[in-house]
């Protein structure tokens, strides 16, 4: 089976490419490398092109015998989506529509979509199940929800089958030390803590110490990126064997506050973390916690790396050995 991975040179995409190759899939990576990194690619054929341009993606389907698609390619910064919603709506929707158009032309009707917990908005209850109301509070979240709606309509009209995987907080690095997080700018908590400890970040700022949580900092559900990648392989296998569309959360169903993460980082690294307390960011919620029951039931998914200590240990190993960060 030849699988097209759009955005396969990014953080989650690259880990998923490695997992797919390990399971014997042939992989074609389609990436414009605006944020993806060539050094994160562990194999497969690479096509350097942009989904904004219909020509290259159409040509890819014409020249390759693609059986299924994994779609990771999108803009992902929540804060930036508030500042420049036009960019997010234009890019995330047009690229997805171009990809789907090329898929239908080539009669490829199997896709795994990289979605987000941002589709839920402010939680009405936790842990969040897939039946929770969908009410995004930022443009980024709306772009993910809109693509999910498009997928539903394409299923009804064209027989497209999909699994939309709604991520919570991806973290950590490849346990083999080959892959890790290389965002620019980096907005995620754990790599920012580690970059500060390595002297590559001058200030570590906490966004909000007055949340209604036990220690006043936001609580998040952290899932190891390798567990996340393995869920994509399981989702692909399920969709190919049982073509039923699904929406599935990917989280660890465990919450850790910002101060919990800082304390664990100090334990793992043996170094002291100094930080500056700042105001809450627009759209931040006190607690974000996933239910993983559906993923376990539908995919047979089991967490292997998502203990907070393991997440930080693997990330620390990666950041220490990667001088280009």
Question: What does this protein structure show overall?
Answer:
By secondary structure, the chain is α/β, with parallel strands linked by helices. The chain has two domains: 2-171 and 223-250, NAD(P)-binding Rossmann-like Domain (Rossmann fold, 3-Layer(aba) Sandwich); 189-221 and 253-289 and 304-321, Alpha-Beta Complex (UDP-galactose 4-epimerase, domain 1), CATH 3.90.25.10. The chain is built from ten helices and 14 strands. It has helices at 11-22, 54-63, 78-83, 85-105, 139-158, 189-197, 225-241, 258-269, 293-299, 308-321, and strands spanning 2-6, 26-31, 45-48, 68-71, 110-116, 161-167, 169-171, 205-207, 219-220, 222-224, 246-250, 256-257, 276-278, 287-288. The strands form four sheets. A seven-stranded parallel beta sheet has the order 3-2-1-4-5-6-11, sandwiched between helices. Strand 1 (2-6), helix 1 (11-22) and strand 2 (26-31) form a beta-alpha-beta unit. Helix 8 packs across helix 10. The radius of gyration is 19 Å and the shape is globular. The model has no long low-confidence stretch (mean pLDDT 96).
